[in-house]
Amino acid sequence: MQPQDLLRPTPAGLYCPVGDFHIDPVRPVPRALVTHGHADHARPGHGAVLATRETLDIMGLRHGADHAGSTQAAGYGESLALGGVTVGFHPAGHVLGSAQIRVEAGGLRILVTGDYKRGPDPSCAPWEPVPADVLITEATFGLPVFRHPDPAAEIARLLASLAQFPERAHLVGVYALGKAQRLIALLRAAGYDRPIYIHGALARLCAYYESRGIALGPLESATVDRGTKGAFAGAVVLGPPSAFAAKWAQRFPDPLIAFASGWMQVRARARQRGVELPLVLSDHADWPGLTDTIAQLAPQEVWVTHGREEALVRWCGLAGIPARPLSLVGYEDEAE
User: Fold this and answer.
1) Given a cut of 80, is residue 14 above it in pLDDT?
2) Virtual CA dihedral for 122, 123, 124, 128, nearest 10 degrees?
3) Triad 331, 19, 137: Cα angle to 5°
4) Would the pLDDT of 144 be above 70?
5) Does residue 114 surpass a pLDDT of 60?
6) Residue 267 reports pLDDT greater than 60
7) What percent of the chain has pLDDT over 90?
8) Are 147 and 176 in contact (CB under 8 A)?
9) Which of 137, 117, 139, 136 has its CA nearest to residue 128?
């Protein structure tokens, strides 16, 4: 069997003709396998969805209980038969419930990484290496310039700023799924035990993380009126980046704007957003993470998607590994 007989790119996304399913399709399809709950991968309207329990729950929270005609939960490491194909879900280390999807038939194994990171994250299961004949990898940060710093060092920078400017509320832009909960967990691991204030858009997902055993400590609403701006002096306030340009942000005393994202390594992006404290905190593999993964898994072939495809394809070529860009459309990189 040739790889393109098992998985092939189509306008709707990666399609498996043998098993008659799509992986992370960008439009409604009869059967979808979903790697994780970010909106650029987990869209509503499919006839049937197979994903981890957490991803299905997150899709329900974000899109409603009737987001698909039917759903089936897959456990990590479990093998499931779909037609003439065996599939399995393995931890991706990206966000809670995120998975790499293994597809096997006719002696051929393809691994679809979805979004992933190799570093430790107290808010989700760690990435698991899964050898494969063909590796389909993301490349969100697929340029050699992207080398992410130690997350603990970025949290230390935030804590140092709080100590330096105790009169200012520190407003940290975070995406609602994954980044918010990871930042909170990292703050707790660093010994920060004060209440953390969260925008209402983060509340349901933070509550869900706690229901799955991810301890986030005391959280309080940053949306309710607390009387005076001084009530938030020296506080950590988390919210979606879009809220910082709205009237909501005006309630805080001389706010210091921070943003947690791998893209904060690009200083021009920080300046464009008016970010005073850029925190380089990514939930994707950086360049060394991408190349180390390919070297470790030693696939016979690499397909690159969702990001800076050309540089990683060239790196593979120089390493003697056949590689191709997939150039799939419809991914908006919500996770960063």
Assistant:
1) yes
2) -30
3) 35
4) yes
5) yes
6) yes
7) 86
8) no
9) 117
Range of the domain at 204: 151-279
Residue 78 φ/ψ, nearest 5 degrees:
-75, 140
With contact defined as beta carbons under 8 Å apart, do 221 and 197 qualify?
A: yes
Q: Is the pLDDT of residue 36 over 70?
A: yes
Q: What is the dihedral of CA 226, 245, 242, 240, to 10 degrees?
A: -30
Query: What would the DSSP string read from start to end of 37-106?
Result: SSTTT--S-EEEEEE-HHHHHHHHHHH-TTSEEEEEE--BT-EEEETTEEEEEEE-SSSTT-EEEEEEET
In sequence order, what are the residues at sequence separation of 6 or more whose Cβ sits closer than 8 angstroms to the Cβ of residue 296? 129
Instruction: Tell how strand 21-23 and strand 13-16 pair up.
Output: antiparallel
Residues 141, 38 share a domain: yes
What pTM was estimated for this model as a whole? 0.94
294-328 pLDDT, tens digit per residue, is: 999 999 999 999 888 999 999 999 999 999 999 76
Whether 185 maps to a domain, the answer reads yes
CA–CA separation, 92 vs 180, rounded Å? 18
Are 132 and 156 part of one and the same domain?
A: no
Each residue's pLDDT tens digit, 209-246: 999 999 999 999 997 666 665 789 999 999 998 888 76
Report yes or no: 88 and 77 within 8 Å, Cβ to Cβ: yes
Would you list the DSSP string of 131-158? Answer: --SEEEEEETT-STT--PPPHHHHHHHH
Query: In terms of domains, do 14 and 133 share one?
Result: yes
Distance separating alpha carbons of residues 126 and 299, to the nearest angstrom: 21
How far apart (Å, rounded) are the C-alpha atoms in residues 166 and 277?
15
Q: Are residues 141 and 288 in the same domain?
A: yes
Place of tokens 């691991």: 189
3-state class (DSSP) for residue 193: coil
Q: Is the pLDDT of residue 163 over 90?
A: yes
When pLDDT is averaged across residues 39-54 and rounded to a whole number, the result is 97
Count the domains in the chain.
Answer: 2
Task: Give the C-alpha separation, 229 to 169, whole Å.
Answer: 9
